[in-house]
Design goal:
Elements lengths: L8 H13 L25 H13 L1 H16 L2 H10 L5 H20 L7 H22 L7 H17 L11 H17 L13 H20 L4 H13 L9 H12 L13
Length: about 280
């Protein structure tokens, strides 16, 4: 006898988003050239909420940056994305990796700390990053590697906000204020929009409980399986990144950074109270 479980409203909305996300597999994030891209705020932008989201980052800087680093490794486990990254040639050596990820950190710092307005550092940064994504996508497409699609951009947004929302207890991130967390979600809804994510694929446009449920689903059904497929190219890329920052991350190794990443993802054998009610 089969018993069907009744889904809650949160679960229904999260499931609907999850299934709809796969329709974006063949939908490029952007097309054309960088000259065609328009940088603008979304119509639902809330300046007060956005600044509160930035403050949440400021209050939890170390944990959020640690989450971003582990998310980078997790996202690199996707074979297609990894090949596009390899194709750019910007992570193939320790020096190239150092330049790339220092640049990434500078961009993130601008997004988290600068005012978001036309002409500001964060505005210029978001515009530049979106153009770079389009250039990399076009180049990869021309070489039959594939293009950067809307689904991949949505998954990338998880890399910035997912772990802080659903694994804060493993990262030393405070999670006792709902409004702060909602503001952080709004911040990433805005940044996702400005990086080219369409509203229907923007995880962060849902209410907090739905966003968290979507993040749990992505972790369980996409990231956890892919992280367990450690290809030689993946290992090489991760080692290159670790070797690029000995002064900033002393005493780290492939094994140590992967241990924490697997623990955050919840890979069997690395779980630590992941189901404890927070």
């Amino acid at each position: 006898m089969t018993v069907e479980l009744e889904l809650t409203n949160v679960e229904k909305v999260a499931k609907e988003y999850f299934l709809n996300m796969f329709t974006a597999l063949h939908k490029p994030c952007d097309v054309g050239t960088g000259a065609n891209l328009e940088t603008r705020l979304p119509p639902w932008f809330d300046a007060v909420k956005f600044k509160r989201g930035q403050q949440f980052y400021s209050d939890n800087r170390f944990g959020i940056l640690q989450a971003s680093f582990c998310s980078l490794l997790m996202l690199m486990a996707d074979p297609k994305g990894l090949h596009i990254l390899e194709h750019t040639g910007k992570s193939s050596t320790t020096e190239a990796a150092r330049k790339r990820y220092v640049s990434t950190l500078v961009h993130m710092t601008d997004w988290y700390e600068s005012e978001l307005a036309p002409g500001s550092k964060s505005w210029k940064s978001l515009s530049l990053v979106r153009r770079m994504h389009l250039s990399a996508s076009n180049s990869a497409s021309n070489r039959n590697i594939g293009f950067i699609n809307q689904m991949e951009m949505a998954l990338t947004s998880f890399g910035f906000m997912g772990f802080p929302l659903i694994r804060p207890h493993l990262l030393g991130i405070r999670y006792d204020n709902r409004e702060d967390r909602e503001a952080f979600v709004h911040l990433w809804a805005v940044l996702g929009f400005m990086l080219g994510i369409e509203d229907q694929y923007n995880i962060c446009l849902h209410r907090l409980e739905v966003v968290q449920m979507i993040c749990h689903m992505l972790l369980r059904y996409i990231f956890l399986p892919s992280l367990q497929l450690e290809t030689p190219l993946f290992r090489q890329m991760v080692i290159t990144i670790v070797d690029a920052f000995p002064d900033y991350m002393p005493y780290t190794s492939y094994e140590s950074v992967m241990f924490l990443t697997r623990r955050l993802v919840g890979v069997p054998g690395y779980q630590y109270a992941v189901d404890v009610e927070k």
